[in-house]
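fyi for ur records
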Amino acid sequence: MRKDELNNLIVEHSVRFESSRDLEPLLTEASNAKFLLLGEATHGTSEFYSTRAEMTKWLIKNRRIHFIAVEGDWPSCFEVNRYIKGQSLEEDAKKILKTFDRWPSWMWANEEMVEFITWLRSYNDTQDDEDKIGFYGMDVYSLWESMEAVIDYLDSIGSSITSDAKKAFNCFEPYHRDAQKYGVAAALYGEDCLEELMNLLKKLRDNELIEGGEETLNLKINSLVMDNAENYYRTMVTHDDNSWNIRDRHMVEVVNIISSYYGLSAKGVIWEHNTHVGDARATPMADEGLVNVGQLMRESYGDDQVYIVGFGTYEGTVIAADSWGDEMKVMQVPPAIENSWEDILHQAGAFNKFLMFTHKNKRLFQQIVGHRAIGVSYNPMYEQLGNYVPTNVPERYDAYIHIDQTQALTPLYRRKAKV
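which gave:
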């Protein structure tokens, strides 16, 4: 298919939008699914966050949504969950978000999220306890924080296995919360904490520690993080591709547990990067043996119960860093390269638009095209070399939102966060 043919198809099938209200046809369709997966082409673009927030608000107000799950650490997100449910002693939304102090902190500690969780708190204040919206983190990185949360809980109930938890924690302490250091020691030198951790996890499973309620969920997920994070960091050193699969399988497992907690009819909204939510089978990831959240959830729940929305931009600014762990800064996102998905969308009209891929039009867009993805580390000078993923867009997503001109997020603080 020639570029002009794809351009004409976009002109014919896309819908211009100026506000979230214009997205209602998409949201109405998406609300038929059990899970709505909302992507992003970067982790540092204001409009991706604000648009997802407005879409999520609409679903909360107009459809029954039970929880939001994001690409963030469970312990910090659980503090947000307590805050929006009125269970936290902290009343300042900004201070709650500053618990996201591990790099890249700007992903959740930003002004856009302050507005959103303040709205969630106000909404939940009008609801009975069983109808309050939950907010949870899906990611696998919080090994030390999750161990601390488990110890704190065991201490609070005077559990007999607190000493086992502290023994496991002490084994990890010499690595000074440096995941890379632990991974090298475990993978290359056989110096690991697996025995201590497995012993603790078995005792956690064998002991009736709580009678129920959300603390059960908190303990279960923190225990799962401990298990999968140790495996992730060990694998990352020698089999990085497999570590990706461990991480995405973990995130799906977290969603499954949260969904079960809320019951059979539970509906959830998931926020993650396009690389996680967009079905991996529509990209070269599949050839590399990689899976992701979008693929796994479609396989598990069926295509009709998982609605995936990708996001992208033609040009603007973004918060990112030169390399992992470096200081965040505002970077220029250059105009999309010629003949990329983002470029063709722009050429079809330099304004915001969305496309819904249906049974009627999906076959028309069957073309592999370069689709931009920007991570937390980014070099605009070299993006042509590695930031465009060959993609069958209508197979990767059920709908796509193009925001032509975008601006960087507004971080809550600029100091360098711990890695």
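Residues 23 and 54 are 10 Å apart (CA to CA). thats all i got for now
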